[in-house]
Amino acid sequence: MSEHVHDIENLPSTPSDLAANHPDVWEQYTALGEACADAGPIDGETKRLVKLALAIGAQSEGAVHSHVRRGLDEGISPETLRHAAILSIPTLGFPKAMAALSWVEDLTE
Fold first, then answer.
1. Which of 101, 96, 107, 106 is nearest to 71 (CA)?
2. Which domains does the chain have, with CATH numbers?
3. 8 Å CB contact between 68 and 81
4. Which residues, 6 or more positions from 66, have their beta carbon under 8 angstroms from its beta carbon?
5. How crowded is the C-beta side of 37, counted as CA atoms within 13 Å?
6. What does each C-alpha distance from 94 to 32, 72, 86, 88 come to in angstroms?
7. Which of 9, 64, 71, 108 could in theory staple to 103 by disulfide, Cβ–Cβ 3.0 to 4.6 A?
8. Which residues form the Carboxymuconolactone decarboxylase-like domain (predicted)?
9. CB-based contact 68:83 (threshold 8 Å)
10. CA angle 88, 73, 31 (to 5 degrees)
């Protein structure tokens, strides 16, 4: 089963409510995520780090938390997850990178 199919009970309240109230939408959303994950040769850890980097770039605290949580569950070290935030300094700027680092550290400290 794909990394995108979640146990609805473990989701934050807003996506959980969406999944419960609109199961067809949730099913299509998870199918899209699965298709995207399977569309190329990138290994699992690298995919998680790319997704974390995209969440950092989008400045989405919830998505950063989600990808850090899932990365930890998948055995990615806290140091590696923190490094993703540090790598964002030259691209996103210091303040945005520090915000991202604080979101990573919410779950790694």
1. 107
2. 11-37 (no CATH), 44-108 (1.20.1290.10)
3. yes
4. 55
5. 19
6. 33, 25, 9, 8
7. 64
8. 23-106
9. no
10. 85
The pair phi, psi for residue 42, each rounded to 5°, is: -70, 135
DSSP structure class, residue 10 = G
Owner of token pair 């298709």 = 35
In the chain, the amino acid numbered 83 is H
- 29 is written with which tokens? 């959303």
